[in-house]
Specification:
The chain is of the alpha+beta class. The protein has nine helices and 16 strands. It folds into two domains: 240 residues, Metallo-beta-lactamase, Chain A (4-Layer Sandwich); 57 residues. The protein is 35% helix and 25% strand. The structure holds zinc ion. Zinc ion binds next to loops.
Length: 317
C-alpha cells in the first residue's frame, strides 16, 4: 500500500515522500532555481497529486515561466523512478532527461518489463502478478528528450546548477546530481537498499564498488553538505559515509554467499546459486535477486574465480 508522508524543504529543494512498503520509503525532490526548476525522478504513478501540490505550493509553474519545471532529470530508469513522467510532462511541459542507455525502457514498457524482471525467462515466468508489480506504478511511456552523461551540467539560474555524476552499479547506467551552490548531492539508488526483505539488486559489481569509492571521495573533495537519496531520504555526509561502508560489507556478504554456493558442489546451476543465496541471507527469492546473483557470477568469472559451463552451470576455478 502506497502511503503519503509529509514533505520537507530547504533553501533549494522541496521533497515529496511516500512509502512503497512497510520498510521501503521513496523521496522525490524538486530543485528550484531562479530561471527553472528540476524534479529528480518522478516516483510512482499514484504520487502525481502529491508532486503537483508540492510544485504548486512552491509557486513552480510550467516550463518556460520563471522558475518553471523545465526538467524531469532521471538518476535511472527503474519503474519506481519514472512512474509520473507522462502526468508531469503534460502538467508542466517539462523535458525528460537521463542516461541514454535505458532510453527504450521509457518508450516501451513491455521491453522495460521483460529486461528488468525476466532477464532469465526460464526461471521467472510471465505472470499477471509480476506484470502488475512492474507495470502498475507506471503511467504512460514518454521518450527521453535529452540523453545525459557524467559531467553534464543543468543550469537552473541564480547559481543553482546540477552536475551529473557517474553512479553506475545498481543499473548499468545511473547518474547522481551534485547541486553546486549548496553542495547538496542527490542520489537515486546509487547506494542500494541494504536491509530490505528483497535484494534491491545491483547489475555490475565492479561498477557498484567504483561508485561507492567515487562518492566517498566526492564528499570531502566537493565539500558536500547534505545528501538526499531516493530511498534513504536526507543524510549528513557522515551518515552517508557510514552507509557507503555498510554497502561495501553488504557486497562482500553477497559475494561470500555466492562463493559458498559454488563451493557446495562441483557444478552448480544459476537457479541453485539464486535459491541458496536468498535462503542463506534471508531474502525473498525473486527476480531482482536473480539479476544480482548473475552479476556476481559474471564478476567472479571476470576475476578468474569461477567458470561458466554450458548455458547456466558454474564451477569454481
Ligand atoms: Zn532502482
Amino acid at each position: 500500500m502506497i502511503r503519503i508522508m509529509p514533505g520537507s524543504f530547504d533553501s533549494i529543494s522541496r521533497v515529496a515522500s511516500t512509502s512503497l512498503t512497510d520498510v521501503i520509503a521513496l523521496h522525490v525532490p524538486i530543485v528550484v532555481g531562479r530561471r527553472a526548476s528540476a524534479i529528480i525522478d518522478t516516483g510512482v504513478k499514484p504520487m502525481f497529486t502529491q508532486l503537483r501540490a508540492l510544485a504548486d505550493d512552491a509557486g513552480i509553474g510550467r516550463a518556460g515561466t520563471p522558475g518553471g519545471l523545465q526538467w524531469i532529470l532521471h538518476t535511472h530508469s527503474h519503474h519506481d523512478h519514472i512512474g509520473c513522467n507522462a502526468q508531469m510532462q503534460d502538467a508542466f511541459g517539462s523535458l525528460i532527461a537521463g542516461p541514454g542507455y535505458y532510453a527504450a525502457w521509457h518508450e516501451d514498457f513491455e521491453q522495460h518489463y521483460h529486461e528488468f524482471a525476466r532477464s532469465c525467462p526460464d526461471l521467472v515466468p510471465d505472470t499477471p502478478e509480476l506484470r502488475a508489480e512492474v507495470l502498475d506504478i507506471l503511467d504512460q511511456p514518454r521518450p527521453l528528450d535529452v540523453h545525459l552523461s557524467p559531467g553534464d551540467v543543468i543550469d537552473l539560474g541564480g547559481g543553482v546548477q546540477l552536475e551529473a555524476i557517474d553512479a553506475r552499479g545498481h543499473m548499468l547506467a545511473e547518474l547522481a546530481y551534485l547541486e553546486r551552490s549548496t553542495a547538496t548531492l542527490f542520489l537515486g539508488d546509487a547506494i542500494t537498499g541494504l536491509d530490505w526483505p528483497i535484494f534491491h539488486s545491483h547489475l555490475d559489481v565492479a561498477a557498484y564498488r567504483a561508485t561507492l569509492d567515487r562518492l566517498e571521495a566526492l564528499m570531502p573533495a566537493r565539500k558536500v553538505t547534505a545528501v538526499q537519496a531516493a530511498h534513504y531520504g536526507r543524510m549528513t555526509p557522515a551518515e552517508t559515509l557510514a552507509l557507503i561502508e555498510r554497502a561495501r560489507v553488504y557486497i562482500d556478504d553477497v559475494e561470500a554467499g555466492v562463493l559458498s554456493e559454488l563451493a557446495g558442489a562441483r557444478r552448480v546451476s544459476l537457479e541453485q546459486v539464486w535459491t541458496g543465496v536468498c535462503t542463506s541471507m534471508g531474502r525473498v527469492r525473486e527476480f531482482r535477486a536473480l539479476n544480482m546473483v548473475r552479476a556476481h557470477l559474471a564478476d567472479l568469472e571476470a576475476r578468474g574465480l569461477c567458470r561458466l559451463i554450458g548455458r547456466s552451470e558454474y564451477e569454481l576455478r
